[in-house]
Amino acid sequence: MARLVMKFGGTSVADLDRIRNVARHVKREVNAGHQVAVVVSAMAGATNQLVAWCREAAPLHDAREYDAVVASGEQVTSGLLALVLEGMGINARSWQGWQLPILTSDAHGAARILDVNGAELVKRFKERGQVAVISGFQGMHKETGRITTLGRGGSDTSAVAIAAAIGAERCDIYTDVDGVYTTDPRVVPRARRLDKIAYEEMLELASLGAKVMQVRSVELGMVQSVRIFVRSSFDDPEGIDPRAEPPGTLICGEEEIVEQQVVTGIAFSKDEAQISIRRVADKPGVAAAIFGPLAEANINVDMIVQNVSSDGATTDLTFTVPAADYQRATDVLTRAKGQIGYDRLDGATDVAKVSVIGVGMRSHAGVAARAFKALAQRNINIRAITTSEIKFSLLIDANYTELAVRTLHSLYDLDKT
Ligand code: ASP
Ligand code: MG
Hints:
- The protein starts with a strand and ends in a 6-residue tail after the last helix.
- It has helices spanning 16-31, 46-57, 63-70, 72-87, 118-128, 155-166, 199-207, 215-224, 286-296, 326-335, 337-340, 367-377, 401-411, and strands at 3-8, 35-40, 92-95, 102-104, 113-116, 131-135, 138-141, 147-149, 170-175, 196-198, 228-232, 249-252, 265-281, 304-306, 314-322, 344-357, 382-388, 391-397.
- With 417 residues, the chain is an alpha/beta fold.
- α7 (199-207) runs antiparallel to α8.
- Magnesium ion (MG) is lined by residues 9, 153, 156.
């Protein structure tokens, strides 16, 4: 017998048929003797609709009322799933964040989970054999008692927090893909599903835009050592042996990964823009003068490359921003030209960032050097490079994105055989 969290995202509960399908997945695990807490998202599209209504009602809405409205999507799903489970003869009860409670900070719209009352769930597993169906995405502020939400995609974080609170063996994330891939299979048909990926690698992938899981949920899983298993809700519920290893990807600690590859995955993003500031003064305070106003404008700066000045007076500085913020960023910098002091602003929006990720890079030298060589052979020019302990990122012309990703995917032996 194991204790499990089963989390189902919006597409997995999109309508009543899908909810019935979810119930059959739950039934399989219950019949196998497991204690189960289910965490559900709102039905696909529901949250978007609720957010749109808030905006329409009041463009500058009160975040507390926004939370009251948007949390309702999950309330519907948890109630419906509990109804369907009961109809199948499974003892189940729904829980809203405030009922359990799941206590959070007061950052309405982006609240942090502080505490989950796991004891009540465990008691009901033991005394009543009851399945808990919990609304994801929501909680209650610990002082005011008001409903809070955790930010878009937050039910992943709910699921991981609940798994930690009840000491679950695994947190199963059922979604519309069957795991985490070495790269986007739409770009590289030979992309492979990973059996396992380390928390840190998944964090990089998620931050770089792999939409499988909310970044914060992976962070929480890493801190709390929750084993997270990404799997498909579209698999036939009865076709799976609950005692055998189902297809999917386990996100876990590095020590659980025996055959560690040097490179685990390749991520890429075309939503990047490059800004180069030419002949900016090489003196203390210049970086602050540039990035301060951008931060104030809430523009997220990513790669930053500054050269060492050759004349001791001026240098060039290049960085990237999300393509959607490009115009705003150049406006901000043009306005601040007086304070910053530079010659010229160059920019490009037809650029892409390709990132190569793997914890194995910590102990292997020359991983990036191989990429530079392989890309050179394909005549792909690299505009900027940044590195960290387990990742390096290359800025290239967007036209070459697919070619670069495919080249690197085979270079690091990630292709499906
Ligand atoms: N329903 C929420 C959203 O769409 C939370 C979630 O699905 O994780 O963002
Ligand atoms: Mg999601």
